[in-house]
Design brief:
Layout (H helix, E strand, L loop, with lengths): L1 H9 L9 E2 L3 H11 L6 E2 L2 H8 L3 E4 L6 H10 L5 E4 L7 H13 L3 E4 L7 H11 L6 E6 L8 H11 L5 E9 L5 E2 L2 E2 L3 E8 L4 E7 L7 E7 L3 E6 L5 E5 L2 E4 L21 H16 L7 H20 L3 E2 L8 H8 L10
Helix pairs in contact: 1-8, 4-5, 5-9, 7-9
Pfam families: GFO_IDH_MocA (PF01408), GFO_IDH_MocA_C3 (PF22725)
Keywords: Oxidoreductase
GO molecular function, one term: oxidoreductase activity
Length: about 350
């Protein structure tokens, strides 16, 4: 993921990739070769990099369990004005909150790399909502991906559609029979979750194999119509009102990339738009759409979903736990997935 971040900075006319840090020297050298980073600016220790180079913006693309230590370390450094961190936000609920608090304390802009907020299927869907094309939004349905990893995108997007409001409660259940570990974190095989935002909008998510709840990645249901995103065998964005369906133009983009991107791109144009947004926010002082505060809304739903599984009941928010209930259930033997094949 670090390559995708760097590519987007390189494509911005006000940014330069000036240094990198990787605990594996060979990886750092390869990255430096790809982005013309001088040999003297390649480090194994990020703290030495901060002292030697003093970057304005730091991107963090490491496993979730070590996000906090590096985010807080960078936030404390006088030179660092902004941090863009990979998702998922962190490995525990308490850790996610501490990162946001530290960046607030040290006046450092913190964002999380949820670049799909800048994809036209989602921005155009949000425009339709804001213009009242389906009346008042009442329910968001998600049938794409998983709950923790991809959910860092899908639940974040649901929050965007709901006006970036916090949730009031979450109820969920999951299945984890085959081990799936990504970036050091377990990922459930199948998940059902329902939650309600404090503005009355409800959301449901059914993810995993053989969980075809809806015919699209997202369905947005309003009092006067419906918006569908990434329709199975159909258009990328569709508006339904009064029994009539209309295809909405998204310039050939899909939920993963801009469609016509060069074959040698490492990331997507969505990453370029993200970097432009975070630089503009840094200039203006406005809160970014990917801010840590907004990210906590998503993280709270994810960890509350796992806590609902652990409690076997609804979880009312704010969430009053510190750990990751999913990981704790695995460690305690409540969940015992079959080991993955090597």
């Amino acid at each position: 993921m670090g390559y995708r971040h760097a590519e987007a900075y390189r494509n911005h006319d006000r940014c330069r990739v000036v240094a990198c840090a990787d605990v594996v020297p060979e990886n750092g050298d390869a990255f430096a070769d790809a982005f013309d980073v001088p040999a003297e600016n390649v480090f194994e220790d990020y703290e030495r990099m901060l002292e030697a180079v003093g970057p304005d913006i730091v991107s963090i693309a490491v496993p979730p369990a070590i996000h906090e230590a590096i985010v807080v370390g960078c936030a404390k450094h006088d030179a660092v004005r902004a941090i863009n961190c990979e998702k998922p936000m962190s490995h525990t609920w308490a850790s996610a909150q501490r990162m946001v608090q530290a960046c607030w304390r040290y006046d450092t802009q913190l964002t999380f790399n949820r670049q799909r907020r800048f994809a036209k299927p989602f921005t155009e869907a949000n425009r339709l909502l804001e213009e009242g094309e389906i009346g008042d939004l009442s329910r968001i349905e998600i049938g794409w991906g998983d709950f923790y990893d991809t959910g860092a995108h899908s639940v974040d997007l649901a929050g965007m559609f709901a006006g970036d409001r916090p949730a009031e409660w979450v109820i969920a259940q999951l299945d984890y029979r085959e081990e799936d570990v990504r970036f050091g974190a377990h990922q459930e095989n199948q998940m059902w979750a329902q939650w309600a935002y404090d503005n009355g909008v409800h959301a449901v998510s059914s993810t995993g194999r053989r969980t075809e709840l809806i015919d699209s990645a997202f369905v947005l249901r309003g009092t006067e119509g419906t918006v569908r995103i990434d329709v199975d065998g159909g258009p990328m964005l569709e508006l339904e009102r009064g029994g009539q369906r209309e295809v909405i133009d998204v310039d050939g983009e899909n939920i993963h990339n801009a469609g016509s991107e060069p074959a040698d791109r490492l990331g997507s144009f969505f990453h370029d738009r993200l970097v432009e947004h975070l630089v503009d926010s840094l200039d203006s002082g406005d809160e970014p759409a990917l801010s840590g505060r907004i990210g906590l809304n998503t993280a709270e739903i994810l960890f509350a979903g796992y806590e609902s599984v652990r409690r076997r009941g609804r979880v009312d928010l704010p969430l009053e736990i510190d750990d990751n209930p999913f990981e704790e259930m695995i460690e305690s033997g409540v969940l015992s997935p079959e080991p993955a094949d090597d």
